[in-house]
Amino acid sequence: MFSDLRQAARSLLKSPGYTAIALLTLALCIGVNTSMYSVVDALLFRSAPFPESDRLVQVESTTPTGETRTYSYLELREIRDQQPSFAGLTTLCRTAFGVSEPGQPAERIAGATVSEDFFATFRVSPQLGRAFAPEEFHPGRNNVVLLSHGYWQQHYGGTPDAIGRTMRLDGEVVTIIGVMPPAFDYRLLWERTAVWRPLNFTRDQLEWRDYRTFELVGRLAPGVTPGRVTTELVPVVAQQAKLFPESYAGVRYTAVPLHQALMDTLSKRISWMLLGLAGVVLLIACANLANLQLARATAGLRELAIRAALGASRRRLIRHQMLESLLLSGCGGAIGVALAFGLNRLIDRTLVVGGGTGGLHLGLDPKILLLTFAISLGTGLLFGFAPAWLASRTDVNTALKQQARGSTPGGGHHRVRQALIVAEVALALVLLGGAAILQRGFAQMLERRTGWDTEHAITAQLPIPETRKEFETEPQRAVLFRRLEARLIALPGVEQAAIATSVPIFSYNGDRQILKEEQSPGDPNLPAAFHVMVTSRYFAALGIPLVEGRLFDLGLKREDPRTIVINQSLAQRLWPRGGAIGQRIGSMDNGKPYWAEVIGVVRDVDGAANTRDPSTPFQIYKPLFQEPWSNVHIILRGPAAASLGEPLRRAIAEVDADLAASGAGTVRQTIDQQQHNLVLAGKTLTAFALLGLVLASVGLYGVISNLVAQRTGEFGIRLALGARPADVLGLVLRHGLILCAIGAGIGLVGAFALGRLLASLMPRLASVDPLALFTVTVTLFVTAVVACWLPARRATKVDPMIALRAE
Fold first, then answer.
1. 426/515 Cα distance (integer angstroms)
2. Which residue among 198, 206, 576, 719 is least packed, with the fewest CB closer than 10 Å?
3. CB of 111 within 8 A of CB of 96?
């Protein structure tokens, strides 16, 4: 065995060009596959860094449209009353706090409020200090805070003296009582959460069934499965649907293992898709290397024949050939590990997870290295067996006679090599077609008309802390919004300023069922519409044109009659013959309709970053001053919107020094941030496609070059008998392009299937894009012509006398 291994190594060293190409191809493809599996493992399989994390589940509430929504306090109470089979059940609410220092504008940081059983459920304790005491969950007693390890290191230098210090959160002085351990800075779950506080429910949260802002995480009791908990929750949602059909019809409660619940369905599917397409690149590489091995085997038939004549068994010949392949794949895998390490660092710096980059901490643990070893071994077997088997079955006498005459070997080798080229071309076209459909689809989505101006506005989120006495009630928040809007519109360079509960980056939120006056609340066919609370200048700030009627008055008061503005699709749905102005619509809330008069109809708006739902939802706009929610967005419009971020922050600080906005940026910047990972996935697929194209081109070039070398005598005879060089050129090109055409025909079917898959993930993409498929097919054929033309041109330069003398 060791002597065979030495001979295999010596044989590879005699062909440095082939060995270098093979190692580079293997290292690149194995490295890419290892890196992609590292990403999938980190996103979908890696256990959360908590004790017995496999027992943790997230209880998800899913609507009939497939959207996952949070819970209200009343829903949480009803679930707890059912007492499902949990060893622990905790509630948490993601939020943001304004951290303020004297004389400085407040800075907004991510935070969470958690219920009393939080630490018992996660089985975690602070690294420093103590956890929350039971009395600190009572109203007015929650003026304590726990810091994340990262925030403690960044802002307090990692000193234990931080315990006992105070900080100002949302205008309230709180005491630091502890620091969470480093492993608890788990980006997939907590995103950039910096602080935790005890959860106190506000009055609105206690009373409103549709005030949904809480998440539910449980630890399963011994012997209990997520499926059993899901079954136990069926009666809960059934009772809710019976009492409030407009809010719970078709809703499901499902217990999902925590590590599976952390990623949305689209991200999971794209991760799997990219891993599969990386495998396609590896298959192209295997076909390419098998072709190269066949070429080497053909060139070395005389040596194999002599070995066989001297008594080498067929098994020994196959083993010699296979050792070459396995040695190559092993070395290529080792280089691929180093490449995967570099790719992982690059991906970690570019992939946005949990609100920022660097959150995956991609590594090469033993499981990943074992997979790399398996890929390397499988690759060597895959591209090495067919050439070894074909070479070993060559007849000794025939091979020696053919080599003596300079003849070509049997047609079996040619047929296999041609089949491999067809497979390479087909797989390369699948990748090219998918990449073209995805990239063109992204471009069309960005260029489509959304019904509002995405180029001249800046937005920012501004959560209003209801725990502050100044903002506890709706009238107090309405006064705040009045003052803030007046200050914003006075800023230099601002043409329009508005405050609203939502901006249509993806879509609006806050959907409720609605009805006309002649309908009853119990009607199962009532449509649902998104409700957005806005100030009067909202439509001007986002460039949403009025189609019919009028907009809200600037001086509208809280006690004025309730009025609404609706979009065209809703007006058409409820009053297809027109006449929406003056009609009344009831919005269902806590089982009762709240009626308002339609005073205007505006153009439909579409989520600018929405890649999923191609339909325009029904939209209702209501005056914010009559329903002043606590979580709002600020919109400023001006000719230089990008420069308004700092004036916006200063204006908020002038109104209230303890309030702070987050995520300030132009609408275009926000859209780009939201689509960052999808664009990155598109670029990755494009890189795979280009790599596949290069490999297929190299393979085609190798086959045609080998064909020319083996048929030199034939070409010399043709030229001697009067054939023109152009005839020989056409003969060679035709042979290569026929293989390419067969592969392209098969590949177009695969590209169409991949397009359908992409469209199922992102319905706004066209599943069939003729222009994209035509473009990549032409690109493939142009590349094939170049790959075939270089060796074909050599065939036309054959000197007939030299070729005939060789014969």
1. 54
2. 576
3. yes
Question: How many CB atoms within 10 Å of residue 756?
Answer: 13
Alpha-carbon span 755 to 753, nearest angstrom? 5
Both 319 and 429 in one domain: the answer is no
Q: How many residues does the chain have?
A: 807
- Of the pLDDT bands very low, low, confident and very high (cuts 50, 70, 90), residue 451 is confident
Neighbours of 337 (CB within 10 A): 20
Is 152 found in the same domain as 231?
Answer: yes
Q: Which helix (H) or strand (E) holds 139?
A: none
Per-residue pLDDT at 779: 92
Distances (CA, A) of 120 to 51, 56, 136, 186, 219: 11, 12, 16, 18, 9
Write the pLDDT tens digit of every residue in 173-225: 999 999 999 888 877 777 778 999 999 887 777 878 878 889 999 999 999 99
Residue-wise DSSP of 43-110: IIISPPSSTTGGGEEEEEEE-TTS-EE-B-HHHHHHHHHH--SEEEEEEEEEEEEEE--TTS--EEEE
Q: Which range marks the domain in which residue 532 is found?
A: 465-658
Nearest to 652 by CA among 460, 406, 425, 396: 460
Phi, psi of 260, deg, nearest 5: -85, -25
The proportion of the chain whose per-residue pLDDT surpasses 90, expressed as a percent, equals: 32
pLDDT, tens digit (0-9, with 9 covering 90-100), for 23-82: 888 888 888 989 888 888 887 777 778 888 889 999 999 888 777 888 999 999 999 888
Number of separate domains in the chain: 4
Q: What is the pLDDT of residues 526-548, one digit of tens each?
A: 888 889 999 999 999 999 999 99
Higher pLDDT, 123 or 520: 123
In terms of Cα–Cα distance, which of 115, 137, 123 is closest to 87?
123
Q: Do 470 and 497 belong together in one domain?
A: yes
User: 542 and 394: one domain?
Assistant: no
The CB density around residue 458, as the number of other CB atoms within 10 Å, is: 26
Tell which residue, 289, 281, 282, 278, has the closest CA to residue 385. Answer: 289
pLDDT digits (tens, 9 = 90+) for 286-321: 888 887 777 666 655 555 555 655 555 556 666 667
Number of helices and strands in the chain (H, E): 26, 22
- Are 641 and 670 spatial neighbours (Cβ–Cβ below 8 Å)? no
Q: Is residue 664 part of a domain?
A: no
The alpha carbon torsion through 654, 660, 665, 666 (nearest 10 deg) reads: -50
DSSP 517: T
Which pLDDT tens digit goes with each residue over 583-615?
999 987 766 788 999 999 999 998 877 766 656
Q: What is the pTM of this model?
A: 0.79
Amino acid identity, position 793: R
Q: What is the C-alpha separation between 85 and 520, in angstroms, rounded?
A: 38
Look up residue 79 and give its two tokens: 């679930």
The 10s digit of each residue's pLDDT in 562-576 is 999 999 999 999 999
At 265, is the secondary structure helix, strand, or coil? helix
For Cα atoms 637, 642, 643, give the angle at the middle one, nearest 5 degrees: 95
Question: How many CA within 13 A on the CB side of residue 338?
Answer: 8
| C-alpha span between 289 and 293 (Å, rounded) | 6
368 vs 470: CA distance, rounded Å: 54
Nearest to 229 by CA among 46, 79, 90: 79
Say if 456 falls within a structural domain.
no
Cβ pair 611, 438 in contact under 8 A: no
Task: Name residue 623's beta-bridge partners.
Answer: 534
Report the sign of the C-alpha dihedral through residues 711, 713, 717, 719, in that order: positive
Residue 620 has a CB neighbour count (10 Å cut-off) of 23
Domain finish residue from 261, 278, 300:
261
